[in-house]
Design goal:
This protein is mainly beta and about 240 residues long. The protein is built from two helices and 16 strands.
Amino acid sequence: MRKTNLQAFYSFLFFLSVAAAMTGCAKTGMYSTTTATAVSYLTVMNLAPYGDSADIYLNGTKYPGAPYPVGVFSTSYFKVASGNYDVQFKTPTSDSLLASIPSSAFDSLGLYTLILYNDSTKGVVNAAKIKDNLSNVRPDSAYFRFFNMSPDMPAVDLYIDNAKVQANRTPADNILNSLYNNFQPFLNGYYTIEVKQAGTNNTVGTALNGSLLQGQIYTIFLEELHASSGNTFNLYVLQGAQ
């Protein structure tokens, strides 16, 4: 499913960790929708407002399924045989290359997020691979991470119930600084979550009654869309259960 709570496989984290010790190390380097000795899990976010719809190619083979239009993100992981993959994003109509990720390892039982993004206004489309590292997640706290994926918002501050928790987050800064991809602990509760232009009270996006609950994992991100009437900014809070 897409644009739903981020529940795919996070709820099976401990099961997967145990299973990892029991599986073999076969890594075929071919994508597969069937059970494999060693598998990896991928999810995709097309957050490049100056881009296009994208099909996904793994080692030159198109992955089955509908393309990802701009602004669409998947919250269900799909399974591939573990191995090395070069990843390409191409337009569905003309087969033009939007962006690519050089060949790299997708480890057994690893969870990965593939993101299309622009890091500047009208900038080129880039692609990045993020490993969803849950090694620090414990059941006695809530956890979140925040991405600013809006190239027309040069810098933003993240607020949780009027408290500034992250400052001066620039577009796609999590791509260059991998620390921003880690889940951070936070006191569990129900909050109003806001993003404001850095150093101002100008609210860009709001998520009312955002839940940050004990033992749960959240990805908060600011998305930008374009229309003839102007830009639209949406703040999403995606939840995953450990």
